[in-house]
Amino acid sequence: MKSKRFKKLPVETNKLNPETIDKILSAVKSNCTTKFDESIDLSFRINNKQKKNEINLRTVVNLPGGTGKTVKVAVVCEDNKIDEAKKANVDMVGGDDLVDKIKNGELNFEKLICTPSMMVKLSKLGKILGPKGLMPNPKLGTVTNDISKAIMEAKAGQVEIRNDKDGNIGLSIGKKSFDDDKIIKNYNAVIEALEKEKSNLTIKGDLIKQVFITSSMGVSYKIKMEKSL
After folding, report:
1. Which of 48, 61, 106, 145 could form a disulfide with 193, with the two C-beta atoms 3.0–4.6 Å apart?
2. pLDDT tens per residue across span 184-204
3. What's the pLDDT at 3?
4. What value does the mean pLDDT take over residues 58-71?
5. Looking at domain 14-67+158-222, what is its CATH homologous superfamily?
6. Percentage of the chain exceeding pLDDT 90
7. What's the confidence (pLDDT) of residue 49?
């Protein structure tokens, strides 16, 4: 059942002509009528069905305007790197002891980073970390010896771009309280990351079919992309 608040929101926004993000943000924000600071979210539909293989995108993007969220970061590393992780304001850090906690189901973090030499131990925990999207990956910058940089980026506004089996990508690019300029910069950073990924793919036609923007508890609007991708 739709709430009284939701019933007051615009209807059939899917029938409106697409607009560029700078022209549509005010409408999206005007629908943020809850008492909390709603997220501004993107939803991409990609051209996932190819004749030879499906497209599997997985990368990260550093949002210049941040996400407005606090990310809890854990690091698995050697003893001589523990102090480095602590100085970078990591939330959890350890070696074999932290691996054992993870093995026992203690997943009190949202991002897991590890050094290359410790990856062999974490790789055995794929059934625990994999389904939650927590397994460190060199491509995502979460298997590295430069743990200070990885921690800083994870906390500063790094988000993952990953499509599901149906070809959908969903991610947040800020909060209602953000200035429009911040949200637009974050949007552009996501588009640039997708452009870079497309150049590494063998794909027939455009990668992106449609883009929608909404707030956490609002209605969605179709974005007009300034160029095909």
Report:
1. 61
2. 999 999 999 999 998 888 787
3. 78
4. 93
5. Ribosomal protein L1/L10, rRNA-binding domain (3.30.190.20)
6. 76
7. 73
> For residue 44, what are the CA distances in angstroms to 19, 166, 220?
15, 11, 12
User: Under CATH, domain 73-156 is a member of which superfamily?
Assistant: Ribosomal protein L1/L10, domain II (3.40.50.790)
Residue-by-residue DSSP string for the chain: ---HHHHTS-S-GGGSPPB-HHHHHHHHHHT--SSS-PEEEEEEEE----SS-----EEEEE-TT--S----EEEE--GGGHHHHHHTT-SEEESHHHHHHHHTT----SEEEE-GGGHHHHGGGHHHHGGGT-S--GGGT-B-S-HHHHHHHHHHTEEEEE--TTSEEEEEEEETTS-HHHHHHHHHHHHHHHHHHHHTS--SS-SEEEEEEEETTS--EEB--SS--
Residue-level length of the chain: 229
Q: Is pLDDT above 70 for 1?
A: no
